[in-house]
DNA sequence: GCACACCTTTCTGTATACAAGTTGGTATGC
DNA sequence: GCATACCAACTTGTATACAGAAAGGTGTGC
């Protein structure tokens, strides 16, 4: 009877974790920002214990760093890091596509994706953030369909880590439309068991998204840099951003 | 001046973490075993705080599970899980080999590996555990040489998780010798930029190791099962082991 | 003898107290 | 005026105290 009564009280640490991650994603906590456990605890109205638990999780996921007895820091942006993540993502997804194409039985697992992406242009959605989320799910479902749950888990982790910059894609309608076309082409290639073609298409699709994000990120960070200099903040975070 | 004075006192939580992992690896903590934070804390002579930190890390690495307000449990063996890890490992290593073969410049990064593995048979080592460790490093260095540090990190995680069953390989001299031959063949194929051949050889090498471990694991777990039934322990952990 | 309810114990989740160390500012000596 | 040393405030790391919930044993009613 108390199954839904305890709907919210469970997992204080989890709540802090999600909140902090959202703060980082929304740039309320900027790359390079330093803060203490007490600050967070007071701001969230909890004790240090769940805050520390949340911070350790974020540290393990490479969002923050602990400075020995001298506070925490939001990890500065590192382009090389994101490039590498994109790279691994491509490798895993191409492997998933190969598994799917070489799979003997039906590919009914892909039905959902087909009905979502292979639609006439008038039925296509055009809301940037919505399509961005759909794009994430497309790639995740592709890997899940390959049947290796550990591969799917690792790919999911990559997706999480890339989200902070990936959602900068889909800010322009042409990218939304291109995404529909590219997903459709990939799905058709898989359904026709054309391994090489499907991999080439997928690789190209990810590469385009990556390039788009790369452009936007550079732009965005230059703006952030300008803001920082305006506020005469010490430029430590920006140094590393540009570096 | 106190740089080396604080050699050991640092990181109590880290120490507990390593100790617990070792306990799991050495089967002092058997799959399915249940325990509480207090038990560990008292046994290690510390408070619950660092124990909890260590347990959360182990939980994230899929070694243990927390049962809501009812203790912790060493994760039961799951063959499917290890099979999947092997699979992802193969995918990453094959991708690394491709990168290496398609790399334009010199492959001097592989010099260390060549000098270690491409030796006449009288210079080969034959101590099982030693070669097992060398084998781990061989595969890790192969991926590191590909130049993507995130890929290397993920591969390293896989290696860690697989170690508990992987070291069961190399218990017989023929496997040691075969490992030398196979590593040598892989390296030569890479140095000659034969992508396909290198991948096929590597895939076969991992597959052989996997099969060997599979056989030994089944044997070992049947023994554990027999022991458990002898002690008339409830068979929960063994059920999942065989299942 | 069986079933159900209560109660005690034990568990994790959270808050707080204490210890050890770093940092930055200030005061003092020159 | 500058450099150095000391001190106070603040930080994380660790230990302990408390709260709420789950589990298992025990006792009672039938």
Secondary-structure-derived class of chain A: mainly alpha
Tell me how many strands of chain A there are. Answer: 3
Radius of gyration of chain A: 21 Å
Strand order of the largest sheet of chain A: 1-3-2
How many structurally independent domains of chain A? 2
- The CATH C-level class name of the largest domain in chain A: Mainly Alpha
Poorly predicted regions of chain A: 1-9, 230-243
The helix/strand order of chain A is: HEHHEEHHHHHHH
Oligomeric category: homodimer
Helix content of chain A: 55-70%
What is the average of the pLDDT values of chain A?
85
β-strand amount of chain A = under 5%
- What is CATH's topology name of the largest domain in chain A? Four Helix Bundle (Hemerythrin (Met), subunit A)
